[in-house]
Design brief:
Shape of chain A: globular
Shape of chain B: elongated
Strand order of the largest sheet of chain B: 5-6-4-11-12-13-10-15
CATH architecture of the largest domain in chain B: 3-Layer(bba) Sandwich
Largest interface: A-B, 23 and 28 residues
Number of strands of chain A: 10
Largest sheet of chain A: 5 strands, parallel
CATH class of the largest domain in chain B: Alpha Beta
Distance between the termini of chain B: 9 Å
Strand order of the largest sheet of chain A: 5-4-3-10-9
Oligomer: heterodimer
Distance between the termini of chain A: 58 Å
Strand content of chain A: 15-25%
Order of helices and strands of chain B: EHEEHHHEHEHEEHEEEEEEEHEEEH
Helix content of chain B: 25-40%
Number of domains of chain B: 2
Number of helices of chain B: 9
Largest sheet of chain B: 8 strands, mixed
Order of helices and strands of chain A: EEEHEHHEHEHEHEHEHEHH
Radius of gyration of chain A: 20 Å
Strand content of chain B: 15-25%
Number of helices of chain A: 10
């Protein structure tokens, strides 16, 4: 079981809700993935709606936990304000904290991130920080009150997959007891399986499913890959070596001549 | 037979046309002062089913491929059949390949072909997709002309009508009120769209151009008179308020990326409308007691309204010909709600 701020989860895929062809396909993808947490980004324009039949109503009917995020925020004050609005709209103290520092790569501004995490943790929020794979930033975020960390493995939406495996490995090794979720950069199920094999606790993705030709089938594919990676991690993986080892012993074999 | 249509947007007017053409007596009640004042007013007017297939199901292609022909025959002179050009900035050419894997009916263009097709874009893009079979029209002119044509055909319009326009004396009432029906139509939601109009004589385009960008996709539709409609955002909201600063900035940025001349253009209009949509983003008609609702056109009003209006008009008209209490069950097209098959009563 995965424990995130006291909530036990049996599924290790967190799914974003943006950019699906339609809400109906989103709903089917959520079911196919068996995810228990979906992320929803809040824009000012979407906050004031009240009529029934809205997108948020549809999200609520999915019966999964909502992790609102502060997508698109570039400053600490923006992120804090958005988090507070999200708490009102979704009635949850969970927040995926994004403070973007570079418009092109959407790389998090780790200085602003730590500051915003401190403010929000102080106000009772359960903060899920979207961060780089930097160990020092990880330390600071834990000091700031975070009990879950979400490092990227490549820029958001890039579909590049884990581009710095050694950084991810050392992060896992340094924080063996902190739930670590790879957020952003996953492009295909094999990427998800790879980071799960490294021992990461879960994967958060959006574009890889929403942008697939068949998002529902891709959601199921990711669910399978994440499970496989998790099982493989527990089963104990072989380390690669330089020379061949025959899988069938040759000594003692009968020789026909 | 007498039919009352509520709403004079693209859904209401195309249905009025299809019914009137079948000899049905039609009246249209609209709360606004003129036709096409809702989402239709802010539409791009692109008749682009093959491009839409990038994010829409095959149904949109099937039902939309006849749209240009319908508008051309209903309103001769309105439709421009010059195709659609899809481009991407050099660093986002992966978006172009992705678009190509999701769509059909295009051919790849190289720099020279692009220059030949749209001289203004020469040297700006190395690769493009050209959807030759697509077309566009000016939604506002089309709505005004359709209004005039229908009036000449004997359709009576009640503009500035009360929302509860009296419906006694009508055999059928069809609600085509689009986003106004959000809140009283199950599952109908709003998807906000923001647009703007730029005016510049420095650049000329002959066809809609779509600029692919992972975050801010954009279309530019030439309207003549040096005007260009630029849109459109897709925001899950039914807020009809003015365009936000961020959306304006992003749309202008993308337009500027398409061609620097748009940086010198005059911003002559901004607007925001609410698209009515069902969860699958496909339109349908449903029966709600004694009212038929035709709604959920999402961003495909001008593209899909002719097809649905024609099919619904045939149903309504057919019920009269059946002369039976309830029309016999018939195979319903995929886009009609299968859970609520339409049952027209030949009432008196």
């Amino acid at each position: 079981m995965l424990d995130l701020y006291g909530t036990s989860l049996s599924n290790r895929l967190l799914l974003g809700t943006a950019r699906y062809p339609s809400p109906a396909i989103l709903a089917d993808a959520v079911r196919a993935s068996r995810t228990e947490i979906v992320t929803v980004s809040l824009r000012r324009e979407t906050a004031g709606t009240s009529k029934s039949g809205t997108f948020f109503e549809l999200i609520r009917t999915l019966g999964v936990r909502v992790l609102p995020n502060t997508a698109g925020c570039h400053t600490v004050s923006e992120a804090v304000l958005t988090a507070k609005m999200a708490r009102e709209v979704f009635a949850t103290d969970w927040i995926k904290l994004e403070v973007i520092g570079n418009h092109d790569t959407l790389q998090p501004d780790v200085f602003g991130l730590v500051e915003a995490a401190r403010i929000l943790s102080g106000e009772g929020f359960k903060v899920f920080p979207y961060m780089t794979d930097d160990l020092v930033v990880a330390e600071r975020l834990l000091e700031a009150g975070c009990a879950v960390l979400m490092p990227w493995c490549a820029p958001i939406g890039s579909a590049m997959g884990p581009i710095n495996l050694s950084a991810l490995r050392s992060m896992r090794a340094h924080f063996p007891d902190v739930p670590l979720i790879v957020d952003a950069g996953i492009g295909r199920p094999s990427h998800a399986a790879t980071v799960m094999e490294l021992g990461f606790d879960a994967v958060l993705l959006n574009t890889a499913v929403a942008g697939a030709g068949d998002p529902v089938a891709m959601a199921a594919a990711f669910a399978g890959a994440i499970e496989a990676g998790r099982s493989a991690h527990h089963a104990g993986l072989l380390e690669p070596r330089d020379m061949a080892i025959p899988s069938t012993p040759v000594i003692g074999k009968a020789v026909f001549s | 037979m007498r039919v009352l249509i509520k709403g004079a947007g693209v859904a209401g007017l195309t249905l009025a046309h299809e019914l009137a053409a079948r000899g049905v007596e039609v009246e249209v009640a609209e709360t606004a002062a003129g036709p096409g004042g809702g989402a239709s007013w802010f539409a791009g007017g692109m008749l682009a089913p093959w491009c839409e297939a990038e994010s829409a199901p095959e149904t949109v292609v099937t039902l939309g491929r006849g749209a240009a022909g319908w508008w051309d025959s209903a309103l001769p002179g309105h439709v421009v059949r010059n195709g659609t050009l899809v481009v991407a900035p050099p660093r986002d050419t992966a978006e172009l390949s992705r678009f190509a894997t999701r769509t059909t009916g295009f051919k790849w263009l190289e720099a020279d072909d692009i220059a030949a097709l749209e001289p203004a874009l020469a040297e700006r893009f190395r690769k493009a997709l050209f959807f030759r079979g697509e077309a566009h029209l000016d939604p506002r002119r089309a709505m005004a002309s359709l209004n005039a044509k229908l009036t000449a055909m004997g359709v009576r319009f009640h503009f500035g009508a009360d929302a509860d326009h009296p419906r006694s004396g009508f055999d059928h009432v069809v609600d085509c009120t689009g986003a106004s029906a959000i809140g009283r139509t199950p599952e109908l939601r709003g998807v906000r769209g923001e647009m703007l109009v730029l005016e510049t004589a420095e650049i000329a385009l002959s066809r809609p151009v779509r600029l692919l960008h992972p975050r801010i996709p954009l279309y530019i539709v030439p309207r003549g008179d040096n005007r260009f409609t630029i849109g459109a955002t897709m925001i899950e909201s039914d807020d009809p308020g003015p365009i936000s600063a961020r959306s304006l900035m992003e749309l202008l940025n993308a337009a500027y990326a398409l061609h620097p001349a748009f940086g010198e253009a005059r911003l002559v209009e901004t607007g925001a409308g609410v698209r009515p949509a069902y969860p699958d983003n496909l339109p349908r008609w449903t029966r709600d007691r004694d009212i038929v609702r035709l709604n959920g056109f999402y961003r495909h009003g001008f593209l899909l309204a002719p097809s649905l209006a024609g099919a619904l008009a045939a149903e309504i008209n057919g019920a009269q010909l059946d002369n039976s209490e309830t029309s016999p069950p018939r195979p319903y097209p995929a886009w009609a709600n299968p859970d609520q098959p339409l049952q027209i009563r030949a009432s008196r």
